[in-house]
Amino acid sequence: MNAGALRRLFGLLRKEALQIWRDPSALAIAFVLPAVLLLIFGYGVSLDARNVPIALVVQRPGALAASFTSQFARSPFFRPRRFLTIQDAEQAMASRAVQGIVWLPSDFARRAAAGGNSPIGVIVNGVDANDARIIEGYVQQVWATWLTARAEAAGGSAALPLSAQPQVRFNPAVDSRDYLVPGLIAVIMTLTGALLTALVIAREWERGTMEALMVTRVTINEILLAKLIPYFVLGMGGMAGSVAIAVFLFGVPLQGSIWVLTATSALFMLAALGMGLLISGFARNQFVAGQIAIITTFLPAFILSGFVFDINSMPRAVQIITHIVAARYFVAILQSVFLAGNVWSVILPNALALVVMAGIFLGLARGTARKRLD
Description:
- This protein has 14 helices and four strands.
- It is mainly alpha-helical.
- It has two domains: 237 residues, no CATH class; 96 residues, abc type-2 transporter like fold, CATH 3.40.1710.
- Strands 2-1-3-4 form a four-stranded mixed beta sheet, with helices on both faces.
- Helix 1 crosses helix 9, helix 3 packs across helix 6 and helix 9 packs across helix 10.
């Protein structure tokens, strides 16, 4: 790049900086939008079931039944409600007042005292299959805890042939928020990165400033660089803010290197900005550009990135489609860096995929850009 081209580029960069300063909507997209979306989704999206309303039906109250049902009152997962009959409990579940029923039959204490099997009845609302499985597991956990405590109090051991000692790695608190928030960052930055370039260029077309640029000596490469560089800086600033919210507000551990996170974030931001530049080549209206950005970036990233829905559980055809979603690779990197650390077998192939995606989107954006008004 010769001296004249550098002067023109610096002039364009100065113009972009002044435009951002005078019209802070780009700052809102880069900093305010990610923070708001992260707070909304971070607090609103959870795969944990806590304070689940559950019905307790004890046909013959007694000390043994009271000992067992008290476990539900002490559990953070349940909010128990007592019913006199199973019919009342079933009616409450049908009206969604409770999500499950734990039923102790009349011979519960007698069979337990005799040393035999003393089953309990468990009925779970299966409308939400995921919640139903979680609630069932929680009930089994309460049951196993009570059996163990009862055996220890009697000076024996629980009548189980095997003793499982599970270890949870990478997310020992088993908190879905620690898993979801890193993926949320990838999904949100996909949208904001695309909007940064798509909306600001569409705004220039609407205001007529783009036509003024077209009649100058600046080349199309200089225009694209002038759009890419300042919004890359803004996007990385928004990324830093999102990471700060994740770590300091949501308490998500950052096990990996901040430098690895910065480098891979830069690759992803180039891909996201490239998507925005590509959109701007077709949409010269802010409303249309925004709608295209949401449909082509945010929705695929939300559904097909593995942030919530497991990619391996999707049909094979859909799994193939996920390979063209840049957020898929960044979600894998973020979840690894945040929860597991610098796992290079995960970071390197996904970072290489981001390099390819950034090259594709920026190349397509350059190929569709023309210094003409039609």
